[in-house]
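Notebook entry, structure prediction.
Reason for the run: the old model in the group folder had no record of what sequence produced it. Starting over properly, with the input documented here first.
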Amino acid sequence: MTLGIRLESELEQFKRDGVYKRLNYLESPQAARVKMQGRGEVVILSSNNYLGLCNEAEVVAGGKRALEQFGAGTGSVRFICGTFTIHRELEAALAQFVGCESSLTYGSCWNANEGLCPTLLGEQDIVISDQLNHASIIDSIRLAKAIAKCQTAVYRHADMADLAAKLNAARDARLRLIFTDGVFSMEGDIAKLPDIVALARQYDAVVAVDDSHATGVLGQTGRGTAEHYGMLGQVDIITSTLGKALGGAAGGFSAGPAALADYLTQRSRPQLFSNALPPTVAGSALAAVRHVERHPELVRRLHENAGYFRGQLTALGFKPLPGETPIVPVILGETAQAIQLSDLLLQEGVFVTGFGYPVVPQGHARVRCQLSAAHTREDLDFALQAFKRVGTRLGLI
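New structure, fully documented this time:
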């Protein structure tokens, strides 16, 4: 059997299982409403563009300035000749924004996570991970186990008693690293950071938080999970993305104590062997950070939109998971039902993604709504009316 035939067979099975992902092509910039190829204008409820900065004029202009000053690409990895002044300026701004001493940018937050655990951990160390952590954290831990031979443990989602038990069992480890998402992307809930940090202090552990869905989102000024809890400066390591609330282009970073960026520069393989972040991305991300600092009202509008939409969905008879974030999952149960709801909503002019197994556990299929500060009340009401029509048709409400 040739490779092509085998892959075609597996793709057909994906379709039968209802997990085949059909791509939708946008013909306009990422915004609250976009032009989708073959469908005209639709309201987007599936974007990570939480603050509406993907097409913000100041952010686009920042990328253009960097393009003109530094060119299209770096042509090198960071430690040879790929570090430009725009990288250092961005990294200083990011560190200050998230309340850390230093930061180091990567091509994505996936790369930042991938470079963290295998670089910091060895055979005498252990990483303890929340059960529902993002795939990039899971893969980072798998790499660390394979390459660095570190120990690993998983605690039940948000279960502090189980985390304490895992920490207690790891008392003999040289370094105990607790790794958690700040906002869990499929559930929309927030890590119990005060409890996690308290346990870390009790057991002399280090805390790393992937704040990809919290940077620009949580806290009064969008500085993330730590600000949400009034704990800026109290988290050892923060990884996050430039590809969501901060303009959505690409890129990610790791932030922490002053020595962290230098150490990762020396040893982190995704940093050593991949080209540096394109100057245009660094320029637009820097402009996004400055824009958020000047416009905290965007964060307030995001929270208002999320609260309104979640409340109105509940009033219609849906049962979204409770929460404080702009991620609003509506649990349906079976994958086919989630995909059907998503398809019918798209026919009504609302793009929202259905997720099933293996992205979420069996029996917990859902449509995941994501709100943006760019959504107007008209956009939200349009989407809510579509949910009402389709939900009634399917007998969901």
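Summary: Residues 57-294 form a domain with the Aspartate Aminotransferase; domain 2 fold (CATH 3.40.640.10).
The old model has been moved to the deprecated folder.
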